[in-house]
Amino acid sequence: MSDLNIVERAKNILLQPQTEWDRIAGEPADVNKIYTGYVLPLVALSAICAFVGMSVFGILGFRIGLVPGLVGLVLQVVLGVAGVFILAFITNALAPSFGSQQDMGQAHKLAAYGSTAGFLAGVFAIFPPLGILGIVGLYSLALMYIGLPRLMKTPEDKRIGYIITIILAAIVVWIVIGAVMGAVRGGFGGNPYGL
């Protein structure tokens, strides 16, 4: 990451995505710094909000216990970071099919910074009745769409097909992650459906 702090980077990618993607494209791809300095804190924030929301407020009278809640928190962080990594891997692997440049460093930047809206939408989980507002996290799809030509050098005529393929792959990844989280939570006495 550049000299920008995490708050400035998140604000800029959300409010000025074209300008910020141009800046990001020129930065060195320090994958370790991207994950430890950006992805991990944002995924952890989302997980902590979900933990507080489910253990303090709950949904429909169900509150999660301390142990299943903490297991879910850790699992959400680990799988969230892994999900970004897998998204980067898929994005890079698909690049030649859409006339784009394979570059794993740029793919990590696209997956990490493009996921910002989704990460931050997780804060709504702190009060479960507001959880529906998490839908604003879908803005991450637009962020990735804007970033594709800047980071992966995607031609304009291939951009829609590329983003749709990435979205479909991401859906599969998140379904698997959700199933793993549900199974582990269920094994620790939590509701396997995440409630």
Could you describe the 3D structure shown?
This protein is an all-alpha fold. The protein has one domain (6-187). Helix content is 71%, strand content 0%. It is globular, with a radius of gyration of 17 Å. The termini are far apart. Residues 191-195 have low confidence and may be disordered.
Compile the SSE list and pairings:
Elements: H1 6-15, H2 17-26, H3 31-57, H4 66-94, H5 104-114, H6 116-121, H7 139-151, H8 156-187
Keywords:
195 residues, mainly alpha, globular, disordered C terminus
Summarize this structure briefly.
With 195 residues, the chain is mainly α. It contains eight helices and no strands.
* Overall outline: globular
Biggest pleated sheet: none
Structural class: mainly alpha
* Share in helix: over 70%
Q: If helices are DSSP runs of H or I spanning 4 or more residues, what is the number of helices?
A: 8
Rg, nearest Å: 17 Å
Structurally, the number of domains stands at 1
Q: Low-confidence runs (pLDDT<50, min 5 residues)? A: 191-195
Which sequence of SSEs, written as H and E, runs from N to C?
A: HHHHHHHH
Number of strands: 0
Strand coverage percent:
under 5%
- The overall pLDDT average reads 90
